[in-house]
Write the structure tokens for this entry.
Amino acid sequence: MHTVAILVLDDVVPFDMAAPFQMFGWARLPDGRRPYRVRLCAERPEVRTEGFALRIDRGLDGLADADTIVVPGSDHSGPPSDAVVAALREAARAGTRIASVCSGAFVLAEAGLLDGLRATTHWMATDELARRFPAVQVEPDVLYVDNGNVLTSAGAAAGLDMCLHMIRRDLGSAVAAHSARLSVVPLEREGGQAQFIVHEHPPVPRGSALEPVLEWIEDNLAGELTLAAMAERSGMSERTFSRRFREQTGTTPLQWLLRARVRRAQYLLENSDHPVERIARQAGFGSPTAFRERFRRVVGTTPNAYRAAFRGRSAAQASSVTVG
């Protein structure tokens, strides 16, 4: 039986911990046997998180004989203890497979396990991971990265994808598909698929001369907005407008406009039943063909796949609610 140890740190994120616990715990072989033994390990017998405390049966010694170690995300901003770092390094030297969910990648990076490797984390933290650990090749737009014995994933949902990937590697697609059905999640999402990022606009200094024109752009996304029209609205020449725009936002006016339109499209895909053709017009892309091409370039998937993923996620969340 394959032993999976979940390393629980202070302020663990419950959803991130639940992903490996659920996926490996629910896996079954064709004859009904459990292929995985799942255990929780921590430095102390009790770990607190938001709203409740966890009783832990095994200390860090429980990592020593594990076949796989999973480090969930944590809201704890400080570095892991020397004991945790030493235990992870020893496990890595022994050839143990080590994976992280969400911000758990920071723990692996602190232990030096990601140096020279590709890695990911939640899109909100990828810049910070790259800044703090320049030896890590951070991939900001993927669901998970598999380096063989070291894996990293984005948010909690991507952690499910990564765990299914490991089960498929260990035992084949049939066992992984059974775990996916029990968890009401798709099996087919591959690691290279983009995270569904809501692209935030670069900040603009308060009181900037750009604020009025940016508000006007947001209010008129469905119209035909050109660089000339934006510059005229700002009372500047196109050259001056473009230069000041880049100075204050770090991007060009047309790139900013594209992200604004993608954000509008994401909102409509998530919250309306409007057909893609209508959303293309509402977000200002014009033709459905242009909409699909530009949406895929920015988000990494098609509008229909994006909508299906969010609808499927909502259905899965609803089906997991127990009324009692």
Notes: The chain is about 45% helix and 10% strand. The CA atoms of residues 89 and 313 lie 36 Å apart. The beta strands are 2-7, 36-41, 46-49, 52-55, 68-71, 97-100, 118-119, 137-138, 144-146, 150-153.
